[in-house]
Amino acid sequence: TNLKTCKLDKDPCLNQGYMGPACKCLCPPGTKGKNCEVLKMSYEDAMLKLFWPNSTKITKPNTVVQTPGYPDAVNSELVMDIVLQAGKCERVVLTFEGFSVMERSAQGLCQSDKLAIKSKVDDASPRTFCGKEILPGQVFKSDQSLLILSYHGFNYAGVWGNNGGTTGWKALFTKERIPGCTG
Length: 183
Hints:
The chain has 183 residues and is mainly beta. It is built from three helices and 13 strands, in the order αββββαββββββββαβ.
């Protein structure tokens, strides 16, 4: 092993880092420092940023979430996930200010431009919206402390050279106490 090659009894690398063949710690995403001792962000958040740079996790209430450039929805086939996280015994409350993306197809499907909202990571049947199906002031609440928004945008600029008459979407993330929760 590298520890033996480096003449070390114990691995000095922290935060899931490990000793590399050059006798230096190899640090996982989200950490830095000689021994990976500085935790910049959780591994989960670092991987989210690495593979989905437009995606984010938000825990601070009174945060506005929106499509980039709202209300000018010229998104180049943007794909992003926004994870909204409330605290223990709290639920996410999401209030929409505006929502205007491509309409459903003739077959009733949200195809190229859509927003899916789910309360569980493994939810196989999220609520999916397109067109103007979410009204200003409409509120969505999570079952527990998590609400996940998955957005897939359409390349309006590439097809029409403008936003196709849509604005994207904008909402406010707040949270509220779950009645009766003592966890």
